[in-house]
User: Fold this.
Amino acid sequence: MATACSIRVRGIVQGVGFRPWVYRLAQANALTGWVLNGDQGVEIHLEGDEDSLAAFMREMRSSPPAAAAISAIEVEPARCEGLSVFTIRESERLSRPTVRISPDLPICEECLAELFDRSDPRCGYPYINCTNCGPRYSVILSLPYDRPATTMREWPMDDFCSREYHDPANRRFHAQPVACPACGPAFSLLEGATTIPNSTEAIGRSAQLLRGGKIVAVKGIGGYHLACDARKTEAITALRERKFRKEKPFALMARDIETARTLIDLSPDAESLLTSVARPIVLAPGMQDLPGVAPDTSELGVMLPYTPLHHLLFAAGAPDALVMTSANRSSEPIAYEDEDALARLSGIADAFLVGERPIARRVDDSVARAGVFGPMILRRSRGYAPSAVAHLPASRPLLALGADLKNTITLVVDGQAFVSQHIGDLDHYQSFRAFVETIDDLLSMYDVRRDDLIIAHDAHPQYASTLHALSLPCANRIAVQHHRAHIASVLAENAIWDEPVIGISFDGTGYGGDGTIWGGEMFAGSLRSGFDRIAHLRPAALAGGDAAAQYPVQAAAGFLSQLDDLPDLAAAPFQFGPRYRSALQMIERDVRTFTTTSMGRLFDTAAALLGFTREITFEGQAAIWLEQLARSAPATEPYPFPFTSCELDFRPLLSALIEDRLHRRPIAEIARAFQLGIAAGLASAVMTLCEECRVRAVVLSGGVFQNELLLADLNTLFGAAKPRVWTNHAVPPNDGGISLGQAALAAFGACDA
Ligand code: ZN
Ligand code: FE
Assistant:
């Protein structure tokens, strides 16, 4: 006797080969019915005998398709209609889509094998893909995910592709971006006045140019890359000059995992990140000296090829280690539209490898590291965005606009928090435009009406994101304090709603609840109840406010002015110059001087005292320089950094540092003693606060915790008496995680600024 049931599957289940997989599973179990992509996930109706239904359910729970991520399966009994076959039905669109959009996927093993199989019709075709692999978020124009709603709508399938697309037994059954050389888009190479219109020839010539030390702009999944040979110093120097990128490290693409192992020291955790479906850039200790690639740091960022095009380029003889950096001028967002790329990059690239398939939205490469407390994402974009990272108790749609640096936005729909791809620093006009576009994009994708929104934003009254929040027509706006948002981001992604914690938020800057510049903050509380600021770094002065972040010597003036006696640096082995002296004068006269508790500026101060006296060219540069220096020295006695009456007192720390510096102790040893001092001071503060507040868990977030050495030292110092340590894994600990924290605090209505 036949029974029937209806099943709804939620999660990342569209665009990952789920319906064909269900079809084949139903066939295998002799079940009839149908499957379709609905607004809330995949809907399945099954008819057959009890045992077959049970077998179907077991298989679905135990081994779903590789790229799927099921968040819930709901099963209900249904009326048996006596269906005789199993079919895939057209997509339904009834209400607001709450289905999750899949991130872009790397080419799968089967497509890779076809790519290099001379007998295959798609041999050498740079747009080969199937239901298990290929672009998703970067080609989707609207939901539900179907070919007319992707950037492939301009290319009608030929008979060959159409047969595969409609054949339930085929790997390309309903693979929306499916194409072949006969019907699909192609790549061409623009080199000066010449155009090579044939994909294979264009790729071959590109590989030749790269071997010859040229810079080639390569269209990828979510934007253009600028590529050159990582071992040709002249090419790298030229790239830095043309791109106006002085010192910020370049990412590398290694031909394969073996090449990656010769470039970086790959721990098993780092290797699993590198080969994960997100295919991020992985930071790890460098094994080769590649001059100009990553000045001032011993780490290199490496990724593996993830598109068919990348594999074809290497197979055509491109150097096995390529610099692959976002195609933009310094700080601008990545170029992703062809005309814009050709215009903006004309003075940078020697040639353009241009693919015809349009990119629906800009998605940079993600950056990650296998950290002391688990994987850490430093930039969350391709491969991760726009997956939901948390569930939050929000009955109405909620939009959180993030901070002005490393901006991301978060949209909460039906309790799912979707975090956008990395957008960038909003003080750049292009990035601000991208910010506005991303808001529009996510709202329209999820069909959210603007007047229905709750908007969360940073408490900083002058942030561009705040001003934008105020300009949006909505009745409900909530300001969230920056460092509380950092702590909340960790608790939200780890789904810790009620447990009380000690929250440590160390970063460069953030508007404090009292109008001063915070950045060395300690809180007690929970996501549900909100956080009380219970301790902080001893306040220092900051001449010029946030602008001082550019100049470590300016930060130094503000911290050194707090010592009992201003140190006499005349005998010091370095010169601070006029900027230091004028900052001291500003502080003395109290002109444009602010109070700060910023840990980031304390690191800048130490870096300045150790010789980093120039202007920084990217955020966090001086602190990274200091960490690298410290790594080169053996463990040593920490400088004193006492925690008394709710303050971490930096004065003994800096006095000891200056003393050693004047006595010409090697700067690497000083850096090590400083780093250990910070860790020891923080560890004792955490122990004290945990005891006082009767709390067993500590949350670490904020840009300072990108410092791996600090985390390693803390881990050692916590030792056996270890509190439970929670850190970010799904969103960055830097300001890329702020929008999630804002969303979480707004959802719980706990946002005392
Ligand atoms: Zn594939
Ligand atoms: Fe921050």
